[in-house]
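Predict the 3D structure for this chain.
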Amino acid sequence: MTDDITGGFTSLGSPARLDGPWTHRDVAANGARFHIAEMGDGPLVMLLHGFPQFWWTWRHQLTALADAGFRAVAMDLRGVGGSDRTPRGYDPANLALDITGVVRSLGEPDAALVGHDLGGYLAWTAAVMRPKLVRRLAVSSMPHPRRWRSAMLSDVAQSRAGSYVWGFQRPWLPERQLVADDAALVGRLLQDWTGPRPIDDEAVDVYRRAMCIPSTAHCSIEPYRWMVRSLARPDGIQFNRRMKRPVRVPTLHLHGSLDPAMRTRSAAGSGEYVEAPYRWRLFDGLGHFPHEEDPVAFSTELINWLKDPEPDR
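Done. Predicted structure below.
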């Protein structure tokens, strides 16, 4: 491995267990086994990836948080990376219980949750469902679930920007498209959703290899199928009603001004669901992956907020 943690990749027997200054292990929670990468000692910060990525998207933040005095843990969500690929359990309520279950399995009383994209959707959900286990909440590139639902159904521009979500509703074909030509579509999505600072080709190759792990494509799509197909079902209506409960922990909301997948106007306004200090931070010139496009700026903002004893509204 090279000195630069973004290059010279080796693996520990799997495309999901990339070598680095972190430690890999498996944790049992909520009836499944979850792969985590961890670094550092101190208050727990749990990092939750989005689509089409896995834990490694947080490689820069793992080292930055550990250096800042935190126990940083990046987990693979159910069905992705090195975690179990179960036949069921991809609704947001269960996925959120995966996250809080891992917090408990790590022997911690609570965690600051940091989620990007789908991981952000689940972080919002966990903060509502298990508030005693969430110390703080930081979400990137994803509105509150009720805002997401409203934007996708009533905002034509957001519905068009999120067209991939509608495309995922078809049976079998999306999975095949994701893994065709060594997951070339993953590379195109990553490039299309970034701003002027693209994710480098070597990193894109890592994500493509991880998507080609058997069953990963199907499991990655299942949460989005639930999010759409449940809109008119009792379980979806109940979830939407449940998410009316306010978030009562300090919340940092991060967004790239050039995000083409989740429009700024869709994400803005999520603070109405937070009855605690809420900070909105817009990164000028960044796209859907601000933590990778400008990791120094993202990590600095996150760490300063985590260390602020009284984050302002």
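Strands lie at 23-29, 32-39, 44-48, 71-75, 111-116, 134-140, 251-256, 278-283.
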